[in-house]
Amino acid sequence: MRSAFRYYAERVFLFLALATFGGAASAETVALSGAVSPNGRYVLVARRGSARAEITYQILNRHAGTFLLKLKSSYQEAKEESANWSWDQTSAAEVHWRSDSRVVVLDEANHNAIGTVLVASERSNRFRELKLHLPMQLLGVRWQKSRLFFERFFGEKYVQISLQGTAGSSPGPYEEKAFLLTLRLPDGAVIGYRRMN
């Protein structure tokens, strides 16, 4: 649980960041759970512009007030949904930093298998998104609905995520399945996996 001091410090930073970036009055930015990196240098926020604008996650340098990377949220506003539904789902994402602050995993909120895991790594004060190479065919599963979840960092060179969902051929029956995947950093290649259930 974040301390009250850290919570308010994050809010003060966000206010200053908005002023620095000169965002429009209609723009909205919020720090996510676990937003600040362990070394205190970076913060991960959710941001949206005016109505129906793209919703993104952004990594910022807290000290320099500079933008480092933008990641697109899986939740984007649509005409048929309530005004803030996608924004509320995006804002509920959880951030997991590796202890050295050089890798961050963003675990989006789960709603009916919407959402995913986004991974970014830092090198020379720049971040880049890792493209995950998942062995869907190797798992031998006909997924009806599935998504990724963050599990843990495994040493400095690996991250473990799970692939969970329902599988089977239409019209059923369907079975709940889950696999634990070990990904190599920084290229995101799967080096091993096993059934979790």
Structure description:
The protein is mainly beta and 197 residues long. It is 13% helix and 45% strand. Strands 1-2-3-4 form a four-stranded antiparallel β-sheet. The longest helix has 18 residues. It is flat and about 50 Å long. The two termini are 30 Å apart.
Can you describe this structure in just a few lines?
The chain has two helices and twelve strands. The chain has helices at 4-21, 85-91, and strands spanning 28-36, 42-48, 55-61, 66-72, 94-97, 103-107, 117-123, 126-130, 143-154, 158-167, 175-184, 190-195. Strand 2 and strand 3 (55-61) form a beta hairpin.
Which characteristics define this entry?
197 residues; mainly beta; 4-stranded antiparallel sheet
What is the end-to-end distance? 30 Å
- Please tell me how large the radius of gyration is: 18 Å
- Total strand count, please? 12
Helix fraction by DSSP (H/I, runs of at least 4): 10-25%
Strand content: over 45%
Helix/strand/pairing category: mainly beta
Number of helices: 2
**For the report, how would you describe the main beta sheet?**
4 strands, antiparallel
Quote the average pLDDT.
Answer: 84
Strand order of the largest sheet: 1-2-3-4
Q: Specify the overall morphology.
A: flat
Report low-confidence residues grouped into runs of 5 or more: 18-25
